[in-house]
Amino acid sequence: MALLSPSRRVRRTPFSEGVEAQGIKAYTVYNRMLLPTMFASVEEDYHHLKQAVQVWDVSCERQVQVQGPDALRLIQFLTPRDLGKISPNRCMYVPVTDQGGGMLNDPVLVQAGPETYWISIADSDLLMWVNAVAACNGFDVTVSEPDVSPLGVQGPKSDDLMAQVFGDKVRDLTFFGCDRFKFNGFDFLIARSGYSKQGGFEIYVEGSERGMPLWHALFEAGKPLDVRAGGPNLIERIESGLLSYGNDMTSDNSPLECGLGKFVSASQLGTCFGGRAMREELEAGSAQMIRALEIEGKAVPTCDRAWPLRADGEIVGQVTSATWSPDFATNVAIGMVAATHWNGGRALKVDTPDGPREARVRHGFWN
Amino acid sequence: MALLSPSRRVRRTPFSEGVEAQGIKAYTVYNRMLLPTMFASVEEDYHHLKQAVQVWDVSCERQVQVQGPDALRLIQFLTPRDLGKISPNRCMYVPVTDQGGGMLNDPVLVQAGPETYWISIADSDLLMWVNAVAACNGFDVTVSEPDVSPLGVQGPKSDDLMAQVFGDKVRDLTFFGCDRFKFNGFDFLIARSGYSKQGGFEIYVEGSERGMPLWHALFEAGKPLDVRAGGPNLIERIESGLLSYGNDMTSDNSPLECGLGKFVSASQLGTCFGGRAMREELEAGSAQMIRALEIEGKAVPTCDRAWPLRADGEIVGQVTSATWSPDFATNVAIGMVAATHWNGGRALKVDTPDGPREARVRHGFWN
């Protein structure tokens, strides 16, 4: 692995000081911001995440704030998902599509206040898309990137840690439920969400100056729980089937191909960007779809590019994320597979940099 | 420095194999793609760049391709610069602004064919902005990111190297002139441009499969010239006053604040995005502007965040890029300085992570 050159352009976060003090070893860059990927080692971080509790600097999940009388109407225009159930107590996962139905981002939508919404984004400058749509159509909104940085608390002991800092009421949040909870005199917006399936929360930290006091409080309260710093873990996210925009899907893919059909509402396809393409795909059936795959043999090398999937020599898809799973003692993978070959149990071959391997389409993910 | 975690999302380039073989030590991530920043060391790369010739993998300067009958009309709408002089033999530096006049990107515009333009971008997903503007206004264009990766040849011996691979006619290109030159039976679009002031070219490599054959040919022909792999060099770019989007300017800044007033045409301000804000700024005068600054004392630490500039204790600007210059035996820096304090010679103080230092506004850059 090569080093990452520091510069202002690759932005630090309100928690960078804490991340450094915890011994960060590797980052990735996400929305032009530092995202910690490794503290002890990817495997050690993984085992710890599944047993204890971690604090994650996921500031890079930047907010596109849409504020004003037309805010919800504009956002509804951007996604095929019906936003009827959004509320200050309920956040929603909302695929955002372009005019051809390609995925531009797969953010979480949060109602942060009256006529104020945060689109909490994956790795693409969705601000540009939303701002241009607003500017060109005369919506009465202001679009901006506010000083709001999510802090993740993930792992089976998340509830215990959060209850100590924010009070026992935080335990009552249901999945994707959200509410405001007080710490140091400020009401933080907190959702039961996050980029692992080990349970946990995301705290939307408004105001960089509130970052480190909260970080320190979580580490202080978490000592008996063996709290550590962490970040999205490659092994755990593949086992759990958590898709990564830019890795497992790009603007070349529709929400249906990404297995996100349940977030595509027929009622929206007449008005949202790409609705026509998605309706045609619904009628004709998708040509390919995201699948869990198992790759045989010893640990695969680092998957830093798409690996072709073959059947009888012909390309029928590609693997986009893959790694060795210690808990399942196999290589776990995510890939896009043609309709002709996507059934669970199907045997395929995958071209890895080390040579071809046997692979098998699974019926589902692991966690 | 921490490591950079590899993943498909942080994209490899058509030249990554060559970059690795040349002993890459550090990258940055630019447009979600790998950009080499260091081979031997930043200082050794710098001395070599100023004496010989380097091949730079600047694939991360992605192209936003706008194709169709309305292509030029759409692009003119995006920039305050009058595009009247664009031609297949002349590329142009074009600030792109949002509705408030903030900089969204500072790309180079290239005419790649009939009704076909490449906006060769700095580090932001301008594709989203252009695509949304096209979609919302019914322009008859197709907007895409084609498989086109620029390869830089930079340094005083660039002409000699390029002439060997593409023929002597390439020497006739003037600054920002461009034309097509044959290699291996294909006509490559080449411009006399690039992100150094040591002279050089950018080759727009169409089709990833053409990348490594060209890379190898340049290294083979360049042996007597001591050709090496390189990349944008922090020291040289500050000495030369080459601004970096995301470092020295963001969407918070207007083109005028960035010292790009000569690319703002009064004739366009009635129609382009942000024209009204720019006109008001032209009338009222800019509140701040980019300046070269010298920082006294020993080598400054890594500048990975904005450093406040002060006069009599009050903040009057910020330094956004800074490093020690071996050739000028001082710390060279780029910053944004308030109108009240931007005159050449003005003494200021800068808050570095090592403590306050004396700084001085310069009349111009070094190279």
From TrEMBL, chains A, B:
It comes from the Bacteria. The keyword ATP-binding does not apply. The keyword Glycosyltransferase does not apply. The gene is dmdA_1. It comes from Roseovarius aestuarii. It is an enzyme of class 2 (transferase). Signal peptide: none annotated. GO terms for biological process: methylation. This is Dimethylsulfonioproprionate demethylase DmdA. Residues 292-361 form the Aminomethyltransferase C-terminal domain.
